[in-house]
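Structure tokens please, single chain.
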Amino acid sequence: MKRLAGVGSKLWTASLLACASLATQAAETVSKPGIYVCIDAQGRKITSDRPIAECLDRDQRLLNADGSQRGVHQRYMTATERAAYEEAQHRKQQEAVAKMDAVRRDRNLLMRYPNEAAHEKARAAALDDVRSSIENSKKRLLELDRERKPLLNEAEFYAGKPLPTKLKRQLDDNEVSAEAQKTLIQNQEVEMQRVTNLYDVELVKLKRLWAGSPPGSLEDADRAASAAAAKAASAPKPGK
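Here you go.
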């Protein structure tokens, strides 16, 4: 037991020494002096071992002892400037994330459709599903029309009289079902147009990507083109 206790004590001591060594190294790293360098408002180059008072309104380079740059000591900002700076940084982060998303989407698009034939095949399959739904609804409408004819023939026997409850319910159900199928057909026709437009837009984009435009670059190019067009439209016309 004494031997085990001695071994444990040695391990504990070694651990403490290792932690102390790491702490000392970290402290030395933090406490290493830096050299602050800036050009003040009068154009003078100033160096110091601490932030330079004459350059509080501008960034100061922070150098290591060997002259290599360690970082930049940013100028002091007012509350308004700080808020604007943080907003700008937030906006940059959002733009970077949006850029990454655009690159990912374009790459996925290229993987899914390596050529126009693959894209057209996917378009045809998507539209076939919609057409099939429309055809099924039209067939159901024909069935409902056939089911309605004998009901109408039976209703003729009750001209000028209230229809029996069962017959009236059958006619009403038939009419509701027919209206539902007509609505479904209208919705599917709208869906067909939506799918067609989607694949048209995709094809325009894919043609640019197939031609060599880098993934994620199309949105920036389109924004630049729109801005140029707006500027040209607002420019004064010659002779006016």
